[in-house]
Amino acid sequence: MLTLRSLKAFPALVIGATALPAIANLPARAQAAPRFEESPCPFKAEAQVLAQFRCGHVAVPENRALANGRQLKIAVAILASLSPASRPDPIVMLAGGPGLRAIDLAVGSLSRGGLDVLRADRAVILYDQRGTGYSAPAFCPDVQIAVDPLVEARAADPRALRRAALARCGDAMRSMGWDLSQYNSAVSALDLEDLRRALGYQQWNLHGRSYGTRLALHAMRLAPHGIRSAVLDGPLPPNRSSWFNRPADFADALHRLSAACAAQPACNAAYPSVEPTFWQRARELQREPQVVQAMRPDGTPDTLRVTRSLLVGIVYEMQSRALIPIVPMLIHEVRNDTVTQVVSRQLLAQASSTSAMISWGLHYTVNCFEEAPLNTPELQAQLRRAHPTAFELGDVFPQPNMCDGLHAFRAASAHLAPVVSDIPTLIFTGEFDIATHRLNGPFVARALRNSRVVEIPGAGHAESLQHECTRNITRGFVNDPQHAVDTSCLAGIPPLRFITDIRAIR
C-alpha cells in the first residue's frame, strides 16, 4: 500500500554502478527441501480468533547462491476455511508496501469480515515478506521514526531527515552482515515458492494488493507451475515505475475527479473548477504556507503548517471511496481553518497509524533496487512534455539521492521486463487510483494472455475487497478461473457523491 509517507518519500535514484547479478542466473537450490515448523501464533488475539489459525515459520536461504549461507525465518499464518469442504488450493495473500505487516493486518480485519469472501471456499495463507513483520531480519527501527508524517511535518528538511536515516539503516544492516542485494521482489517470489512446497500444496491462488501485485507477477514469471490463478488488485507492473510516473498519474486523476465534480450540479455549484483551483492553491502555499490551529491525535492542541507538499500529500492520501468525495471541498477551502483541521488531522493520524505497520527499511531496500533503473532520461522527457504542470511539484514527487546511502544495488533488465504468462488472472483497477494508476491494468494485461481487467467505478486504491460486487466477482473467478467474469453488478455500485458540507465529515 502506498500512503502519504510514501508520496513524500518516493525519491528518484541515481542508478548505481553496482548491480545485482541477474536473478534468472541463480543456481538451483542446494539446500534441503523447505519445511514448515509449527509454533504458537506470534500475535495477540482473543481465543476464538487464535483458534482459526495455524502458525509457524519456514526457513529460507538469505542468498540462494550460497550453499551454506544464512537462513531466514519467514512467518506464516494459515487461516482456516469457513467451508467444511475446503478446496485443496488455498489463497495466499501478498501484502502491499512493500513492507506491510501482512499477518497483523489480516488478523485486524477478521472482526470486520474482510477476508470472509476469500476463505468461504478455501484456506487463506498469510505470510510476512522477508524483512517485515514477524519475518527476519528486523530492519532499522530508527527509520520508522524518521518517516512518521507528524515528525516530518515539523522537520526543517524532511527529505534530508529521511535520507540520513536510510544511510544509517544501510550502515547498520551491513555491519550485522545482512546482504541487501537479496531483498527484492524476485528473491521474495522464490521465498513464496519455498512456502508453497513446505506447506505441501500442489497449487495455490495468488491474491496481491498494490505492491503485492508486483510480487505476484514475479512469482508468475519465476515459479508458474505452482500457481492456479492470480488476482491483482491495483496492479504495479515491474516495467512501469510507480515513483517516476507519479506526477502524471496524479495530474490525470485530479483532472478526472474535477470533471466528475463538474458533472454533479451541487458539487459544481459549490466547487467549480477543481483542477485549476488546486494548482492555484499549490502555488499560493508554495509562496506562503498556512499555519492553522489543530489537535493532535491524542487530543492535545497543536499547530499545523500547511505547505504545498502537505496539500499534495493529503489529496494523494484520499485514496478510498470514503475520502475521495471530500477532495473538491479540501482544495477549494484549504485556507479555511476548520476544513483544513478536520481533514488534515484525520489523515495525518491515519498516516501515522499506517506508518507503524510498514517496515520502512525493507520498503526502501526493495524500491531502491526496482524503481531507480526505470528512471530514464527518455521517460522524464516524455512525462515533462505530456504533463508540464504536474512537474511544478518537483520537490514533492520523486527526487534523486534519497537512497544513496542505503545500498547501490539496481535491478538488471530481466527483472524489469514485462511478465508474460498464460495463468488465469483477474485485474482490478480503481477509477481514481493514483498509487497504482488505472492504466496499469491494461498495461500489465498486454503480456498476460489469459487476463481480464475490471475497473471499479468511483474507487481509489486497491478496493476490490471493499465492495460486495467485486468480492463476489473475485470469489467466482477463483472458483472457476477459466469461466467468463460476470461484471454486471458493477452497474449497481452507487455513484460517487461529493461532499459539500463540512458537517458531513466532522
- Report the helical percentage: 25-40%
> Which term fits the overall shape?
globular
Q: Please describe the biggest sheet, giving its number of strands, its sense, and whether it closes into a barrel.
A: 9 strands, mixed
Average residue-wise pLDDT: 86
> What portion of the residues fall into strands of 2 or more residues?
5-15%
How many strands? Answer: 11
Q: Spell the H/E element sequence.
A: HEHEEEHEHHHHEHEHHHEEHHHHHEHEH
Q: Can you say what the CATH homologous superfamily of one domain is?
A: Alpha/Beta hydrolase fold, catalytic domain
- Based on CA atoms alone, the radius of gyration comes out at 22 Å
Architecture per CATH nomenclature, i.e. the level-2 architecture of one domain: 3-Layer(aba) Sandwich
